[in-house]
Amino acid sequence: MLVSGHVPSRQLTAGVIAGFLGVGLATAILLTIALRINDVWSASIVELVAAQQLAMQQARAAAADGAAVAPIPFDWTESARRFITTLLGGGLAWSWLPMIAGFAVGASGRAVIWSRTRRTPDVVASAGVARTFQNIRLFPELSLVENVTVGMDRRLSTGFIGSLLALPSALRERAQARAEALKLLQFVGLGEKAEDAAGNLPYGHQRRLEIARALASRPDVILLDEPAAGMNPTETVDLMRLIRAIRDNGTTVVLIEHHMRVVMGISDRIHVLQYGEKIAEGTPTEIRNDPKCIEAYLGKEELG
Amino acid sequence: MAARFASFARGQLIALGALALVPLLDLALPAAGMESLQLAGASRSVVVFAILAIGLNIVIGWTGLLNLGIAAFQAIGAYAFAILTWENYPFQIGFWPALVAAALIGALAGALLGAPTLRLRGDYLAIVTLGFGEIVQETLKNVEVVTQGTKGINPLPAPFGLTSDRAILWFYAYLAILVVVVYLCRNLEFSRMGRQWFAVREDELAARCMGIEPDKAKLKAFAAGSALAAVSGALYAAALGSTAEPASYGFEISILALCIVIVGGIGSITGVLVGAMVMLGITDVLLPLASDKLQDAGIGSTANVFSSPNNYKYLPAPGRPRCSTPSPVSTSRPRDACWSRAMCPAGSSPPA
Amino acid sequence: MTETEVFFQQVIIGLSNGMIIALVALGYTMVYGIVELINFAHGDVFTLGGFLALTIIGALGAAAIIDPSTLGDSSNWMLLVGLVLASGVFCGALNMSIDRVVYKPLRRASKLTQLVAAIGVSFILVNIAQFWGGLPMEVFNDGVSATAPKDFPDVLDWQTNLLGEDSAIALRVEDVAIFAITIPLMVGLTLFVKKTRLGRGMRATAQNPVAARLMGIDTDRVISATFAIGGFLAGAASVMYAVFNNSITYQQMGFRAGMDAFTAAVLGGIGSLPGAMLGGVLIGLIRAMSDQYIETRWTNVVVFGVLILILVFRPSGLLGLKQREKV
What we know:
The structure holds 3 protein chains of 3 kinds.
Chain A: H1 14-65, E1 84-88, H2 97-105, H3 120-126, E2 129-131, H4 144-151, H5 160-165, H6 168-187, H7 203-216, E3 221-225, H8 233-248, E4 252-256, H9 260-266, E5 269-274, E6 277-282, H10 284-289, H11 291-303
Parallel strand pairs in A: 1-4, 1-5, 2-3, 3-4
Antiparallel strand pairs in A: 5-6
Chain B: H1 2-6, H2 10-21, H3 24-31, H4 39-62, H5 70-85, H6 95-117, H7 122-142, H8 144-147, H9 167-189, H10 192-202, H11 204-209, H12 214-240, H13 251-263, H14 269-297, H15 301-306, H16 328-332
Chain C: H1 3-35, H2 42-60, H3 62-66, H4 74-103, H5 111-132, E1 150-151, H6 173-195, H7 197-207, H8 209-214, H9 219-245, E2 247-248, H10 250-268, H11 273-293, H12 299-313
Antiparallel strand pairs in C: 1-2
């Protein structure tokens, strides 16, 4: 390739090669150390926060009535599968999410906590737990279909090189993902708007898109954080229909919700929480007639 | 649908085509009896800086990471390329291998800087990259044994045996590299990788909850951007036949790249191509034409600030060093002498 | 000089430089705290303060001041204070008008837009400084070379060693003057932010601009005041810098000093006033120690290396608050 006048002598002596190998090795070691420090650092945070949270829960429970309460507040076994389970509770309901997520991850055997640490959410997500957010968090500048495809990410296998060179396998995967995303959009009723930017959608549709995105990861469990918040009655009815359809497709739904019509209308099981502790558990009918719950949450007017 | 993604966008084809036609003016104008504008050299700069800005666009436009030190990676690429091709070093591996090696070294440097720092919030990352830019510059200047200090490594062999009088051919060779770069980046844009980057940019937490690992995605973006910057540096050094002094890869260049990205519309490769033509059209074609008039008006320095790096020279020597033994550094390279009192080693007392 | 004496000499130099850096850093951190903008032009506002001070000296007649026999006079102290005030007011007004003219219309624009606007302002100010340096005045070498560094005359006695003539460690009037001017400014600023109504407005706006506006705080006025105060501190710092270094130049003051100050602000945790002060002093000390014990030419590398290391382990700076996102 060298076309210049004189042919250079390539004095690649053993010393030079050894020097370069040395530099390369040193760089590699440095990089490894840097990444490792990062991992150890974040892992330590994960454990620390998890331990703190558990201790806090137990302390809170112990302080409440002097009795030891199991840190995992409800039975997460086959019996709960493919149900719509609602957590009905005050401001502390969200603090239960970690417990559920932790048990769904299961294998790791420790409570993994949503959004509390640097690395847990993607670990949780890759274990098959998807979620939506109380205050909608879409990718506003991406199109609907792209939003949903992002949700699929954990199931895709195209790597950097495949992406860079547009290898046939990458192109095939991309086409498949796109088709599947369009199908999901149809399922939640947004099929016609597939190419619009997500940020331009009306509120109710944004919620549906978020649910579609969560479903795209084919989760075992989907956590819906106050999906009916801010919805008008028509949208709410549509939402309930959608949630039922998700359950019927074989996904366990966990709901955090205050909206009584939704809670009572679609829940298979309800867990009632007060100040972070469970005060009752049962079907909607049982909960409706539980004096403790009436006192704590529902209020007399609501029951009529 | 796949075909649409893998091929070039129309805007990109138009921009590349327009760029390809520009140097023909060098042939057309003299033929028409007018003075040649020497556009081939300027167009070559457009290619070099377009590649730099495409790299920056991956980092800043697609992944949303504020990088103010992209010129550092250009410097790393230029020096890596120079060291691998210079006749006084034993490697002399030729243009293409050195170009690829420069890209890999740039990617490695980007990963090295990125691994510990990418979790910083936007402005903290900005200052870290800015600081890294300074570190690279100063280090290149100080390690004179390897980098020849402010002299720069030169002369470098011309690629493809091209000499400066074949500027047009040289430009088309560079343009071909740019076409490949645009093609690859377009692949990235519409792939899983690009989608991860966009998701991280739009909402990092939501992306994380979808199972994307933002740290890995960011690291890849940073490495890819740095690799392109390094390619740009290698092409720059090859075109100049020299790395030029380390100060040529300063903050101004990072900002020039940022301006190219922004002028054309952030996040768009077509925009970067247009931005590079506009910005370098101003700095390399219009300003030199106008510079005589500007100099007369006493504001010629405006041209310097944005002008191509080798034009940017720092002025000599502060007036009156307080130290009884003025350090050689303070006289030859005033950029070091920020807090000039601190320049006095404590052993030396001020002159009485 | 013994090793210990060398060390303490460097501590004095580091502290003096550090106090100046801290003053500039306060301007960065205050503006960032309120509008989340890296005010890249701040370093150049700082430069222009030095040019104004030199112009004033030129206008007053430089000869009287440079005469070594009058160096210890109290009139020189008054001149210094006068310069600090004049330069401070000028820089405050300049900073405030930059905000009004450039940043305010962009308040709702993306962060990147604002940042690029700030960098643009910085470049404009650099050119103003070059132009200013070409003025036909004696202090500017009659505009012989507009861009060359300008000598700044001695305002204070820099020869007497306050620790006694035989002491190996030099503590000069200039060092003392820096502390005598910067420390009251910092204390005053802290009290202002803590005690006054406007200061409370600043803290409220920094935490939540929308809520502050709803509570009846005139946030535009608060922002203007913040820019003005930051500019004032930069102006004061620029006079101290000029007196201390006897030379002003747009190249080293604007970008370089601005970088050091911004690094200091980030090091201390941007948005935090005590953080900026701590960061400034730390940067000054690190520079002095690196100059002495490593090598001057590696000092910038050391400073930024330390910065990166600290940010890796404390991502929000030394005194910055860790931000958490609740979902």
